[in-house]
Design goal:
Layout lengths: L12 H17 L19 E10 L2 H9 L2 E8 L2 E8 L2 E7 L4 H14 E14 L9 E3 L2 E3 L4 E3 L24 E2 L2 E2 L4 E2 L6 E2 L2 E3 L2 E3 L9 E3 L1 E3 L2 H8 L8 E2 L2 E5 L6 E3 L2 E4 L7 H11 L1 E5 L2 H11 L3 E10 L8 H7 L1 H21 L1
Helix pairs in contact: 1-3, 2-8, 3-6
């Protein structure tokens, strides 16, 4: 469905290159009011359309299709090959885009949206893999924060890196190890027949710059969802399905639930490794893993735009105990529940503004 939407506006590649350069200049000076920032607000510049909107990003086609189908007063814009749909969804002016899978795609497309439209708030809507074994397929998670723990310093062994002198000091390289309570987080251990072996993979903080921390910038391990949007999500009572609409005979045994809170993680690897999943849960208490939201969250922070992310679980990432990953993934259960929560949130958000 998504690929069949007609194109109403096209920007030539050469023109877009010039515009993108201008967008970087605009973005570096522009400030948008949010609950997380009290910095002076500069004039908003939009390269395509300047009506205030909620920006919605999805990574997988089926996720975006459900939302676009229900959007009213639709108009499509093609920008550097990416199709953006503007309109009204459950009483809110929105712009929706399909990013494609991966942290790089999510980063590029989210920033492209920020440059070309007046996005006041950001929302990620999609499916993901479960990390917390207590959660179930079909549950919808709304983490309070997102991190990218696969951004690593890969040491030769399990000892703390010391390229700049002291153990754990990597500052001379322009990077910083992730820490907790003042101590670097432990590296990932690989299970072997002879016991755990250190991988030398130590988590790093990400460097990020915006108008509030320039020119020195800052290192951050996680990015926090907007408290106001989270508070609204906690009060939602959406109807969540047990059976996939594409195959009603395929049902989960446990009624899916909406779970707000905890941590989400993202990375460039499609995670199908139970050992690494356990590492993420044990060390970060992560609830869910995907390949986009951490990058999306960093773009939101860099632009000082409040965000929230809804992720429905399609499987337990790398779980050998779940044999029907492909069947449930294709059943439509996860994206249906995720879309139901997203739509319920937008409807509640619209009522709140009246």
């Amino acid at each position: 469905m998504f690929a069949q939407i007609p194109v109403l506006k096209t920007l030539r590649r050469t023109t877009f290159g010039l515009l993108a350069g201008a967008a970087l200049t605009f973005t570096s000076t522009f400030a948008l009011t949010s609950s997380a920032s009290a910095a002076p607000v500069a004039q908003k510049h939009c390269l395509t359309e300047c009506k205030p909107r909620i920006g919605i990003v999805s990574a997988f086609g089926a996720e975006a299709d459900i939302l676009i189908e229900q959007t009213q007063k639709k108009r499509e814009w093609l920008i550097n090959g990416n199709r953006f749909t503007t309109g009204e969804l459950r009483g809110n002016p929105v712009v929706i885009v399909l990013s494609g899978v991966s942290v790089v795609n999510a980063t590029m497309v989210t920033q492209l949206m920020m440059d070309h439209f007046h996005v006041e708030r950001l929302l990620m809507s999609g499916i993901a893999g479960g990390v917390n074994p207590a959660n179930h397929v079909g549950d919808v998670t709304v983490p309070e924060s997102w991190a990218m723990p696969m951004e690593v310093y890969w040491n030769g062994d399990g000892t703390l890196p010391s390229p700049c002198g002291a153990a754990g000091d990597t500052s001379c390289l322009g990077v910083k190890l992730a820490s907790e309570n003042g101590k670097p987080r432990p590296d990932f251990k690989i299970d072997t027949p002879n016991g755990p072996v250190s991988s030398g993979l130590f988590m790093r903080d990400n460097f990020v710059m915006n108008a509030t921390n320039a020119p020195q910038g800052e290192f951050r391990f996680e990015f926090h969802a907007d408290p106001e949007m989270l508070a609204l999500a906690r009060n939602l009572k959406p109807a969540l399905a047990k059976c996939g609409p594409k195959n009603p005979s395929l049902c989960v045994s446990v009624q899916p639930e909406l779970r707000v809170g905890g941590h989400g993680v993202s990375g460039s690897a499609f995670l199908a490794n139970p050992g690494y999943r356990a590492y993420l849960f044990d060390n970060l208490q992560a609830q869910v893993v995907d390949m986009e939201t951490g990058a999306f969250a960093q773009v939101a922070y860099a632009n000082r735009v409040p965000f929230i992310a809804f992720r429905s679980l399609s499987d337990l990432a790398g779980g050998n105990d779940f044999k029907d990953v492909g069947a449930f993934f294709g059943s439509g259960l996860a994206e249906t529940n995720e879309a139901n929560v997203t739509l319920a949130f937008l409807e509640a958000w619209s009522r709140r503004r009246r």
